[in-house]
Amino acid sequence: MDNHSSDRPIAVFDSGMGGISVLRELVAIMPNEDYIYYGDSAHAPYGTKKLEEVRELTCAHAKRLFDEGAKGLVVACNTATSAAVRVLREQYPNIPIVGIEPAVKPAAQCKKHPRVLVMATPMTIREEKFKKLMQRYEKEAEIIPLPCPGLMDFVERGDLDGEDLRKYLVELLFAYQHEQVDAVVLGCTHYPFVKPMIQRTLGEHVMVFDGGAGTAREMKRRLREADLLTGRTTRGQVEFRNSLEKPEKIALCKRLFEL
Ligand code: DGL
Questions:
Q1: Which ligand 1 atom is nearest residue 124's CA?
Q2: How confident is the model over 94-148, as pLDDT tens digits?
Q3: Distance, CA of 76 to CA of 38 (rounded, Å)
Q4: Are 119 and 185 within 8 A, CB to CB?
Q5: Is 215 helix (H, G, I), strand (E, B) or coil?
Q6: Omega of the bond prior to 45 within 30 degrees of 0, cis?
Q7: Could you tell me how far CA 147 lies from the centroid of its own chain?
Q8: How far is CA 81 from its chain centroid?
């Protein structure tokens, strides 16, 4: 890369709108960086697709973002991370690439032997990466994986507190209401946008965890290590792009970013 590679943008990728929950954390701790946020809403949801398809899509988008000069990539999607992050790191060993995984660790350690519900896409829960993560903490906590097909679609539509969402959550979480779990992990980057509804459905006593802030810290650490943090002292730009190329999608990106 050239002498000004530290001033190039950080790419943030997700299957749609969800990664904006991670983008917010990135901007909070690295406000002077430039960002390109790319959401692949045209192919969303990823979580109910085949692994190979998600890997191909993720690698193709990553390649384009690197070709355009991104200095690093945050795979702000748990599903795409489990399908493609290992391959991406092999393909681009010299570029900081950070993925996100369900925040099981802090949830498993929130009290003595808690019951932890992990909400994520069917693919995230099915994949090897998650099985290993569960095994690592199974002595410390009772971990209950819960695939949530369809939940991300509410966020893609911008429905964060409607009646249909309320009904969906009541049905999905029925068995875990009334003191049944101590903590819940939002293992899909779309879910932090419906956190108030999930909290209301499960009860105020339930602790809610997501991996966004930890992922942002990890990216900052990796950029610092590679001497790629910008030296600029003024606020950077955020550019939103979406494979659907519809103005409504970009408007929704901005709305979610500013929440
Ligand atoms: N936001 C994505 C995640 O973190 C997945 C949503 C989807 O495309 O199914 O897993």
A1: 10
A2: 999 999 999 999 999 999 999 999 999 999 999 999 999 999 999 999 999 999 9
A3: 10
A4: yes
A5: helix
A6: yes
A7: 15
A8: 9
Beta strands in 87-242 (DSSP E): 97-99, 115-120, 142-147, 183-186, 207-210, 238-242
Catalytic residue annotation: 77, 188
Here the tokens at position 79 are: 């599903």
Give the Å distance between the CA of 234 and the centre of ligand 1.
32
Residues pairing with 59 in the sheet: none
Distance between CA atoms of 254 and 23, rounded to whole angstroms?
11
Dist. CA 62–CA 218, nearest whole Å = 19
> Which residues, 6 or more positions from 225, have their beta carbon under 8 angstroms from its beta carbon?
96
Most distant CA atoms of the chain, gap in Å: 58
Q: Does residue 193 line the site of ligand 1, with CB under 6 A? A: no
SS3 208: strand
* 95 Cα: distance to centroid of ligand 1 (angstroms): 23
Helix 51-67, helix 78-91: angle, nearest 10: 60
* 184 close to 206: Cβ distance less than 8 angstroms: yes
Single pTM value for the model: 0.96
Residues β-bridged to residue 13: 38, 75
26: tokens are: 């990135």
Any ligand 1 atom below 6 A from CB of 191: no
As a whole number of angstroms, the distance between CA 107 and CA 117 comes to: 9
